[in-house]
């Protein structure tokens, strides 16, 4: 539409008058113009928002991938990821156990702040019908990104609870924490989920069933002998009572063994059970196909994909294409299958030409479980490399995990960074990149990784990091300003058993208090930067600044403690125990809970 002034000029010059466009036609053109501007703005906004693919292994040791020094376990795709990005060599899990570590990863906060750190020996959820879990008040990075218009999905393991008060509230479920789509295992993979692989409850069986059965048998034998000697004649009801008690205990044991697997080892798609009990047949392939489908379906919009592997937690499993192919038995087979899955995801990003606009992160929730050895002597735990300890303790082997970040064109390929970083750092990093402000009503313990990854700074923003064993402050790490030293002070350490071992083999995991630990006063001090194996504790004689260093670390611990608030303990005995009214079941036939609605190609993601 020409301006009025231009029409006047044309009339003055003797041109025949132009017909003015009708108002309706003008409005149509204006609408079209606005629509084009909106589409351009939308495309510009989408292009400016990076995608995120976060890959989380379970119990993978830092010594397992080839890019971290393993020469015999084949991980070409994880290695490819490392070559194309930054390898973090002092990347630390916020906890050495699954549930608290994943809570910290999701929220950017120490798990003690959300009540996801236990005060008892049991530090993780063991039943799907527990009432504890990641509180609805917690903010995950998925919530923040969903508010920014991202499509969000979690595929694989959750292990942060399902419901609070009734089986339909799903207050702890992934879909209540910012994920548009969930497909996977709401609890965790464990030996009891796979027939013939043993049980994680063996010690409990001995204490609660076998020991009482032995006492009952001894009591029955004593009564029989006394009666035979004529010293005491027990009434028949005494024999009947002991017999019924033994029958009850045996029945409870058999019932537990029969029902545990279907009641706890099942797959869900969003809030519906799709397979109960879970089948391991091509499980990795199914979940990987679903993840790839999610990427393809959301290639035109910003997305967040968290692919949370069931590997390498026992029970170990792998498909026929990988079984028996590695040099490390069933553990190696599973690791190489997981690496294949990583490769599939990277290939899809390349296929869709999304690699340059996608930040990919790979890590493990804690170190390898070194105590995982079968009754036949097969080692089913991974390698923590040169580092001491493993899962469930805060020696470096339990918390120093693989950490790889790739973003072509934004992060320089082939870098190696030895500064202290944490899996809590992912929360503020992805939030800032997605354009989301951080919550202002709570402490965020993670730090934005981008300045370090882009070499805009040479130092981590973490001067202090605090290492918890469940809810107990176990150790403090200090990287003083203007210093290359990294100090680590332990307030207590686990008692390895048997003596001289590199783990707590007698109890299968290390515990955090009482007779299972040794308390240190003064704290046990190491210079991690010079002694990463933690073999040579320092003394006032070997380190002149010994007391000065400890004083600074204890003051930091005291300041940190003042930032903590009392919150409900999500891992209390009451929240951990099985509650029948919270049990999810895909059928109405009592506790049989048998169904299979899994699509074998995994193509269900939105």
TrEMBL record:
Segments passing through the bilayer: 203-226, 238-260
UniProt keyword 4Fe-4S, yes or no: no
Domain Sulfatase N-terminal: 50-435
InterPro entries linked: Alkaline_phosphatase_core_sf, Sulfatase, Sulfatase_CS, Sulfatase_N
Keyword annotations: Calcium, Hydrolase, Membrane, Metal-binding, Signal, Transmembrane, Transmembrane helix
Signal peptide extent: 1-46
GO molecular function, one term: metal ion binding
Cofactor: Ca(2+)
One Gene Ontology cellular component annotation held by this UniProt entry: endoplasmic reticulum
PANTHER family referenced in this protein's UniProt entry, alphabetically: ARYLSULFATASE FAMILY MEMBER, STERYL-SULFATASE
Similarity section: Belongs to the sulfatase family.
Full protein name: Steroid sulfatase
Origin species: Bos indicus x Bos taurus (Hybrid cattle)
Gene: STS
């Amino acid at each position: 539409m020409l301006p009025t002034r231009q029409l006047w000029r044309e009339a003055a010059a003797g041109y025949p008058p132009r017909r003015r466009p009708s108002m309706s036609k003008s409005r149509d053109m204006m609408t079209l113009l606005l629509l084009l501007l909106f589409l351009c703005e939308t495309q510009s906004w989408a292009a400016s928002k990076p995608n995120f693919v976060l890959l989380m292994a379970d119990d993978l040791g830092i010594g397992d991938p080839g890019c971290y020094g393993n020469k015999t376990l084949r991980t070409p795709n994880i290695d490819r990821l490392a070559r194309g990005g930054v390898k973090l060599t002092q990347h630390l899990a916020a906890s050495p156990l699954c549930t608290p570590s994943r809570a910290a990863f999701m929220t950017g906060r120490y798990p003690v702040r959300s009540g996801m750190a236990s005060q008892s020996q049991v530090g993780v959820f063991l039943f799907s019908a527990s009432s504890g879990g990641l509180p609805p008040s917690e903010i995950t990075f998925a919530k923040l990104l969903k508010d920014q218009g991202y499509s969000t999905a979690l595929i694989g393991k959750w292990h942060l609870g399902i419901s609070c008060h009734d089986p339909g509230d799903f207050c702890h479920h992934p879909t209540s924490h910012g994920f548009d789509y969930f497909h996977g295992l709401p609890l965790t993979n464990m030996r009891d989920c796979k027939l013939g692989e043993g049980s994680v409850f063996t010690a409990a069986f001995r204490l609660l069933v076998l020991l009482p059965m032995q006492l009952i048998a001894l009591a029955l034998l004593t009564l029989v002998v006394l009666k035979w000697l004529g010293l005491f004649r027990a009434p028949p009801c005494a024999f009947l009572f002991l017999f019924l008690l033994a029958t009850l205990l045996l029945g409870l044991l058999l019932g537990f063994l029969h029902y545990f697997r279907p009641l706890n080892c099942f797959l869900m798609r969003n809030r519906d059970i799709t397979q109960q009990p879970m089948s391991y047949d091509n499980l990795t392939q199914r979940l990987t196909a679903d993840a790839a489908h999610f990427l393809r379906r959301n290639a035109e919009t910003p997305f967040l994909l968290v692919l949370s592997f069931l590997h390498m937690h026992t029970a170990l499993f792998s498909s026929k294409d990988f079984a028996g192919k590695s040099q490390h038995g069933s553990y190696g087979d599973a690791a190489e299958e997981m690496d294949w899955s990583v490769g599939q995801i990277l290939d899809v990003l390349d296929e869709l030409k999304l690699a340059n606009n996608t930040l990919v992160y790979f890590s493990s929730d804690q170190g390898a479980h070194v105590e995982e050895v079968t009754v036949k002597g097969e080692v089913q735990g991974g390698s923590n490399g040169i580092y001491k300890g493993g899962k469930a303790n805060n020696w470096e082997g339990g918390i120093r995990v693989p950490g790889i970040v790739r973003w072509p064109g934004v992060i320089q390929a082939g870098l190696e960074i030895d500064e202290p970083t944490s899996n809590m750092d992912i929360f503020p990093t992805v939030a800032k990149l997605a354009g989301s402000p951080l919550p202002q009503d709570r402490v965020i313990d993670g730090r934005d990784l981008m300045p370090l990854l882009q070499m805009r700074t040479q130092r981590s923003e973490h001067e202090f990091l605090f290492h918890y064993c469940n809810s107990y402050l176990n150790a403090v790490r200090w990287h003083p300003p203007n210093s290359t030293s990294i100090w680590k002070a332990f307030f207590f350490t686990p008692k390895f058993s048997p003596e001289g071992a590199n783990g707590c083999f007698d109890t299968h995991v290390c515990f955090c208090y009482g007779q299972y630990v040794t308390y240190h006063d003064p704290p046990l001090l190491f210079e991690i930067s010079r002694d990463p194996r933690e073999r040579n504790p320092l003394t006032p004689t070997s380190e002149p600044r010994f007391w000065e260093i400890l004083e600074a670390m204890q003051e930091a611990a005291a300041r940190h403690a003042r930032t903590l608030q009392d919150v409900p303990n999500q891992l209390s005995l009451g929240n951990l125990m099985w509650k029948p009214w919270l049990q999810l079941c895909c059928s109405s036939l009592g506790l049989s809970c048998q169904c299979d609605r899994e699509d074998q190609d995994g193509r269900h993601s939105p």
